[in-house]
Amino acid sequence: MLIVSLSLFASLFYVLATGHVLSRLFDKDGPNQKLTIILSTLAILSHMLLLVNSVFTHEGQDLSTVNVALLTCWVIVVSVTTVSLKFPATLLLPVVYGFAAILLTASLFIPHHMVMQTINIDLGLVVHISLSLLAYCVLIIATLYAVQFFYIDNRLKHKDLAIMHSHLPPLMQVERQLYQLLTIGTTLLTLALISGFTFLDGMFAKEFIHKTVLSLMAWTIFATVTLGHHRFGWRGKSVVISIMIASGLMTLAYFGSRFIQEVILGKF
Questions:
Q1: pLDDT band of 106, cuts 50, 70, 90
Q2: Rounded CA gap, 66 and 111, in Å?
């Protein structure tokens, strides 16, 4: 009952925060930052309490796909909210808040099973998992920035006066932050892959090969785009599409097989 209450409470405030930001999306003064922070903070704290009660149980740690997804979502929400305190993130906030609300609500209905595990402390494994989680979060945020960049650029090319006088961030600022995040995320993903090959056995074993191959494909695209931008000034629609494809591959690598096994097939 506590899990349900926390999920609904967090979803409610994410929805309220989303509605407030969207209602003032093209207002020149933007959304009321104080109200946005209050609503999002209540949602984030409820989300955090939900994770604590869902992951840490009397029998051990529940690291089911749903809980890992909720944890990843929480990290992304906290990161984007923190960034919004200094830089306008009017387009990003409703996306991450809205997705968080949907995920929290869906988690109540997805027929996943509690997978109880007692984690043995292995430094190499901890390093690999930490780097992988950080890389995923940073690169997903970079993908959101890429979509934001494409949207603003497209509206400006069509001489949309509403967006020119809105509270949305300057295009060059979005582009600069996009490639900073992409560089950091690609570096973290590189380190995550190196740590995996260094500390873990069987990266190309039958049960893990699809994750390894998809991760390497995503890394290749991210690294190519990052290098192409810094060396040759690549930008534009093709870069945004490439980043989105790489993020999709990375998401399949991180969550695809586990989601099918745990949720669809009901295997442990």
A1: very high
A2: 10
Where do runs of H (alpha helix) occur along 56-122?
A: 65-84, 92-107
Q: Are 116 and 60 in contact (CB under 8 A)?
A: yes
Question: How many other β-carbons are positioned within 10 Å of the β-carbon of residue 261?
Answer: 13
Distances (CA, A) of 21 to 15, 44, 166, 187: 10, 16, 12, 32
Query: Does the pLDDT at position 194 exceed 80?
Result: yes
Residue pair 43/14 in contact by the 8 Å Cβ criterion: yes
The Cα–Cα gap between 252 and 120 comes to 26
Residues in the chain: 268
Q: How far apart are CA 142 and CA 92, in angstroms?
A: 11
Q: What is the pTM of this model?
A: 0.87
